């Protein structure tokens, strides 16, 4: 019986989990008022898997998050949701038009060895009959033009992350708003924070007993179906492949910090679809494990097996940066995967369709119309930021580019001047931008881009047990899932969203580093 | 657009989450074979809230757990499940028989100031009409007698912990067995581990294609309803109290490390029952926040409000140790809570019914029969460890005590000699035990107790990213929930379980310290 003493939990020698106001350079005096609410939120985060691996050590920490959701235009949110299947279609049609795709990439090949190698593998592998996309289109609100509109920052066709974990952020915000909105202790903080957002629909409500936060949660916080729809797309591709007992391979980086986001996909595939996932790095796939059947004479018969198990779907959360290919072994692995009959998410054609050079090409006049019907093309174009190739000619002409150059000389703050090639030098702003254009030197190397002027909103950043109020700007990611077999489209839909919020005036970025935090859109 | 660079996650500068074999004194060579399985398990733990606050810093870590469940006799498990409502009844009847209860405590009052103060508050407060118990009865398997049987270690009537988190451990073990049991890579580890348990029902199965681990998960891993039944009991008491909008107060220690276990209760109460919980320490309750209505003249009207909100239920996860009452303020708070009409879980009578002195009293011949019908009393008694008051008389007599003393002299390894009073000296074993009895000095102060000889089984301990095989002994906690209003019993049931597993030969204990780990029973 004496052992019982040792089996009981040791009580009373416990240390606190603090939530403290930030000790940064400019802590706001009222930050500590938000500590109790932040403690509720971080407890929720730890209980519900809103986690990532810390940058400074190997421990899991709560993912950095915004204590409350951030305001977004309802109309613009609906528009970019509507655009998700259109971008899915666009990517698929580009990928199926290899000639156009290779032509679009061609200008980059001389200077961009990474893209060149990807495209040479694609050119030597067969067209993909079954095509799966889990894309994420990123937008920022631009306040500079007539009425705020979402402008596309980039379109991710490989390793689109933060999907599953964003469903948890939405659930956290639901919890904060509904549980604490009318709480006598913490409710005033929630109401105060919501009021600073100046939402149109709750401005006038002064009714007693009206639970503003619950109303906001019901009416303004959209459902976020990532945790259902992203794994569902992978499962549908697995079913399309049609071999019972085959596995899905997640190609991962060796030291992934955002691992829970990936593990949630894996868990859903197992619990909902009974599909097993193996996580492997490109190096692991290269080391004698991955085998293609057949002798190469019949492209349709190159079944991929890993350690003897047939692979239905290869889902890439790695392989998008040259850093992921330190040796030829990783390249060999990518080639084996691409040459197999497994469904790739993405295929090389999808991967390449998401590169900057292709996105520049598609933005040129008439190109969207090649792939989309005119209405769709017009709506997509409204999301493109103005982008003009500068030239000596455009300096003088009344072309669109010419007009933009003239406006940039008058209002250089509305533009950024970028080198056309990756690694071709620094971006130029303001007076430097105007001087460079006026100099007339090497103008053909330059792209004049409209600068996005995002609205700046207050936010409460919660990072590793610290809460800090600050002004923020946000980027919305919209997920789309697409599955097609030959000409038959099986899935083409919006699949959820993620809002990332960054402190204004901080140059650093990235959720994993804690400079950006995960948030949800609050529709106005 | 340039801000997009900063909003993307920083990729490629990530560090590993390792799972390593233990670096302890005696690492087994094959421990590293279990690292991949342990990595799957810790990832699951972080994703699904199997967490606690670390002892060494303020970070959340995964709770220490056993990689696989531990073998327990099915028959004995069913017996202690059956005993849960019987112990619930026993506690309630003791608490309702104040005269007997105060008599039973009386011998401790002179030397135990803490129990004395609790009982004096109880004596001055009214009998509780509505009585709520969330009890946990702890057992260890005793291999020493004829056939292994569960013997009760203690009966916790206050702050019974690890209930909710144990449901997560069961879910983890379900996942490990079903997902990896037939996995080509990790399956052999799971099978090997199960085989070391020597389960009767899977000894003979050598069928090809027979998924032993899935079979074991289906047949031998019992459902664990804590996460449903513990909050349901609190919610039922709240409903019984019957005031819409009232809150439940969790009385907590200031620096709780097992906070997620409590938060899960809180989350279930909110999401399932829409009941709000406030967490407060006794000190916080004391500091001008807690108010009783009425002037004390009418005991039925002493409504408890905290910061103006009426309290339906007070659930204690603190207050069971003198350390929780550093000043008179905490005592005052306990008294206010006890004198209110809020439902206490537990009331002071329930709290005191769970003390060691009362459990010794109830073990005396004829006492169980006072409160239970003969069949129930007999079954409860089989779970009691042999406990005899030593005296000069018992040395010579053929009474039960006398026979035990004679057996102890012949087989001292089967007994432990304990001082009757708390803090009365060290326990004696072996030769020292026999010498002391033979000396005949101050025998009236001593209790001779049967020693529990638990079976020692292999286990894989997973603590903070380290996996280590070792021999283990386990303690089963069985939860029971009880709610009565006057003579009407509303709830009286088994409500789940927790197995804690401790490395054999390690003196230290406690889950929070990592010496014990959380596990699940595997029924044989």
UniProtKB/TrEMBL annotation, chains A, B:
Cofactor: Mg(2+)
Catalytic activity line of the entry: gamma-L-glutamyl-L-cysteine + glycine + ATP = glutathione + ADP + phosphate + H(+)
Signal peptide: none
Enzyme Commission code(s) on record: 6.3.2.3
UniProt entry keywords in alphabetical sequence: ATP-binding, Glutathione biosynthesis, Ligase, Magnesium, Metal-binding, Nucleotide-binding
Positions of transmembrane segments: none
Single Gene Ontology MF annotation: glutathione binding
Protein's UniProt keywords contain S-adenosyl-L-methionine: no
Top-level taxon in the UniProt lineage: Eukaryota
Cofactor annotation comment: Binds 1 Mg(2+) ion per subunit.
Pathway: Sulfur metabolism; glutathione biosynthesis; glutathione from L-cysteine and L-glutamate: step 2/2
Binding residues annotated for substrate, in chain numbering: 262, 500
GO annotation, cellular component aspect: cytosol
PANTHER family: GLUTATHIONE SYNTHETASE (PTHR11130:SF0)
Full protein name: Glutathione synthetase
All copies of domain Glutathione synthase substrate-binding, residue ranges: 247-353
Family membership noted in the UniProt record: Belongs to the eukaryotic GSH synthase family.
Residues the entry annotates as binding ATP: 356, 418-427, 429, 449-452, 475, 502, 508
Pfam hit, one: GSH_synth_ATP
Record's subunit section: Homodimer.
Binding site for Mg(2+): 422
């Amino acid at each position: 019986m004496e052992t019982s003493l040792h089996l009981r939990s040791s009580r009373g020698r416990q240390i606190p989990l603090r939530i403290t106001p930030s000790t940064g350079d400019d802590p706001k005096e009222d930050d500590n008022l938000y500590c109790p609410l932040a403690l509720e939120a971080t407890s929720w985060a730890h209980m519900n898997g809103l986690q990532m691996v810390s940058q400074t050590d190997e421990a899991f920490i709560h993912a950095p998050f915004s204590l409350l959701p951030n305001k977004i235009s309802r109309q613009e949110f609906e528009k970019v949701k509507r655009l998700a299947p259109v971008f899915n279609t666009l990517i698929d049609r580009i990928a199926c038009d290899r000639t156009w795709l290779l032509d679009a990439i061609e200008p980059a090949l001389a200077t961009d060895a990474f893209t060149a190698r990807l495209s040479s593998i694609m050119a030597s592998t067969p067209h993909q009959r079954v095509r799966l996309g889990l894309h994420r289109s990123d937008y920022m609100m631009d306040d500079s033009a007539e009425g705020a509109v979402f402008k596309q920052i980039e379109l991710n066709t490989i390793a689109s992350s933060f999907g599953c974990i964003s469903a948890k952020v939405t659930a956290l915000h639901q919890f904060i708003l509904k549980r604490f909105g009318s709480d006598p202790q913490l409710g005033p903080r929630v109401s105060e924070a919501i009021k600073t957002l100046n939402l149109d629909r709750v401005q006038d409500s002064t009714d007693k007993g009206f639970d503003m936060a619950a109303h906001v949660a019901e009416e303004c916080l959209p459902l976020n179906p990532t945790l259902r729809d992203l794994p569902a797309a992978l499962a549908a591709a697995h079913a399309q492949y049609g071999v019972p007992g085959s596995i899905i391979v997640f190609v991962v980086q060796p030291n992934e910090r955002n691992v829970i986001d990936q593990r949630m996909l894996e868990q859903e595939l197992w619990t909902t679809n009974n599909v097993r996932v193996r996580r492997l790095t490109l190096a692991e796939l290269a080391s004698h494990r991955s085998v293609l059947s057949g002798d190469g004479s019949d492209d349709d018969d190159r079944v991929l097996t890993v350690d003897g198990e047939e692979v239905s779907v290869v889902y890439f959360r790695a392989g998008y940066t040259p850093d992921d290919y330190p040796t030829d072994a990783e390249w060999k692995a990518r080639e084996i995967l691409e040459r197999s009959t497994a469904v790739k998410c993405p295929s090389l054609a999808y991967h390449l369709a998401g590169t900057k050079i292709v996105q520049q090409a598609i933005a040129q006049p008439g190109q969207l119309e090649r792939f989309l019907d005119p209405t769709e093309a017009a709506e997509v174009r409204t999301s493109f930021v103005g982008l003009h190739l500068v030239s000596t000619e455009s300096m003088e002409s009344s072309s669109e580019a010419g007009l933009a150059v003239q406006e940039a000389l008058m209002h250089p703050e509305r533009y950024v001047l970028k080198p056309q090639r990756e690694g071709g030098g620094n971006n130029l702003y303001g007076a430097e931008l105007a001087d460079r254009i006026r100099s007339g030197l090497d103008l053909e190397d330059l792209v004049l881009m409209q600068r996005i002027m995002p609205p700046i909103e207050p936010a409460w950043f919660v990072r590793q047990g610290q809460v800090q109020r600050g002004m923020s700007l946000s980027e919305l990611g919209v997920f789309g899932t697409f599955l097609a077999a030959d000409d038959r489209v099986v899935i083409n839909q919006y699949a959820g969203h993620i809002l990332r919020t960054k402190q204004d005036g901080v140059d650093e970025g990235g959720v994993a580093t804690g400079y950006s935090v995960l948030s949800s859109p609050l529709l106005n």
